[in-house]
Structures
1.
Amino acid sequence: MITPEMPIPRQGETAVRVRYCECDPMGVAHHAAYVPWFEIGRTELLRAAGVSYAALESAGIFLVITHLDVRYRRPARYDDNLIVITRVTGGGRARIDHDYELWREDQPGAGRSELLSTASTTLACVGSDGRPRPLPEWLTAAAHG
């Protein structure tokens, strides 16, 4: 049984840096690189409460993406410092909804300077058999908190 050390935050900020392997020859981050950055934001919300995705999966709880919408506004570039803002925006008995903002910051720790992208996801809870299952009560409370 998984028990978080504290409530799952409804919002969090995570710093990432654009890596060379995520870019085209002009140094612009590929559009597919944004999705893992949003995933990092989600996993860090759980980690802030003392829960890891690995622990969820060991308990037979899997969160799968059923919806993803990304809006690109400005390009991220090689070696940019980025801030991923992740918010829990809703959910249900077996799903969690998140919204994201991806910001460039001029210097690490200097704060947001330019909005690069927004996104939203819906995650469904499934068991190890791939069939839908209810979220753990503590995770449902976080989604509705």
2.
Amino acid sequence: MASPRFVDRHAVGSSATPEGVWAALTRSMEAAFGGLAHGYARLVGCDPLDASGPRPLAVGSTMPGFRVVEADAPRTLTLVGRHRFSTYELRFTIEPDGTGSRLVAHTEATFPGALGAIYRAAVIRSGAHAVVTRRMIRRIAASA
């Protein structure tokens, strides 16, 4: 399978320290990918499907649709996953920024085949992924 390619990058500032943003990020990931996300993960055939592994999130932790492959607190949290239509990586970086921090969400993915192309159009080209990602990182920054 092809290596994931750049999809998008979004950033938001926070007055919190990198440690405070890290705590909010890991809490938010746990909350965001339960409930309805589990139903969606089942529908599209995500791997992994269920939450497992260490908590708070660490390398080897899973949640519906994502596996933690890097957890370098308070700097980088990298999640990977796949489903019927895509293989993807979502990497969060937290950078000191003056008196606070900057949270960056970077997405890479592949969308193989005709169904992958349709999925890409529905989720990426429609702008839905960007809207959801920006909303998520704004909430994380605000809760930090």
3.
Amino acid sequence: MVVIVVSGLPGAGKEEFVRVAVDKDFSIIRMGDVVRQHAMDLGLKMGDLSIGGHANSEREKHGKEIWAVRSMMELPNGNLIIDGCRSEYELAYFKKNIENMITVGIEASVETRFHRLVARKRDDDPTTMEDFQRREDRELGWGITDAVNNAQIKLGNDGSLEEFRQLCRTTLQAIDSGGY
């Protein structure tokens, strides 16, 4: 069993990495889904400011690793992707509690990520550059840069979708064969 913890700013390509991993029989825990579900359970409005504010508030109340703790409450058996690590604190929690773990950081330019998020149209995605920058500043404030920069494997994603999917397949194959 291997656990891959994935970090990257919104729109970098984490979801594409996850899709490729699912094709290779990995189970998935999306930390963002854990946050959104927690917010829904509390009856909060879905949207970037509400969800992001809730995520931040919970970090302040319960510690900077709270979403890592909540994400690990029900770990499935077998190979696993934990998608959406946002800080060195979450990363440290995972390292302390997972034996066979590899970290992957996914990077893409600001322009690329902005256009992807606008096209994605999820409830918490920005529709303007101002909204994007507000979200970006919040994510950077959580320490996501440290999580990406300290990843064992870094993947760049400014090319085509198929190029990135092939890079993901090659990376997952190398991890599976013990090449990392």
